[in-house]
């Protein structure tokens, strides 16, 4: 993939997503990966759904545009 294509993707991602880094005990990433695979999801989708469930939501609320 070209550098230009990656730059475009990176720019789009930075405009449309926030990054959250979580830390888990050593070796537990594999546990989460297996659970996500069993659910037919990526780790990102799996953890995002877990966050929504914990907040009592089914989908992310609408966010007003930042100025």
Write the topology of this structure.
Layout: H1 3-16, H2 28-38, H3 43-54
Helix pairs in contact: 2-3
- Sheet-strand content, in percent, reads under 5%
Spans of 5+ residues with little confidence (pLDDT < 50)?
none
Q: Please tally the β strands and state the result.
A: 0
Task: Output the radius of gyration.
Answer: 15 Å
How can the largest sheet be summarized?
none
C-alpha end-to-end distance: 33 Å
Query: What would the average pLDDT be, to the nearest integer?
Result: 92
Backbone shape: extended
* Class by alpha and beta content: mainly alpha
Sequence of secondary-structure elements: HHH
> Roughly what percent helix?
55-70%
Q: What is the helix tally? A: 3
Please characterize this protein's 3D structure.
- This protein has 67 residues and is mostly helical.
- The protein has a domain at 26-58.
- 55% of the residues lie in helices and 0% in strands.
- It contains 3 helices and no strands.
Summarize the entry for a quick read:
This protein is mainly alpha-helical. It has 3 helices and no strands.
Features:
single chain; 67 residues; mainly alpha; extended
């Amino acid at each position: 993939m070209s550098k230009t294509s990656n730059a475009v993707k990176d720019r789009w991602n930075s405009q449309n997503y926030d990054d959250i880094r979580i830390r888990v005990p050593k070796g537990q990433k594999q546990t989460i990966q297996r659970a996500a695979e069993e659910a037919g999801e990526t780790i990102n989708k799996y953890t995002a759904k877990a966050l929504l469930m914990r907040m009592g939501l089914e989908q992310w609320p609408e966010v007003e545009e930042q100025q």
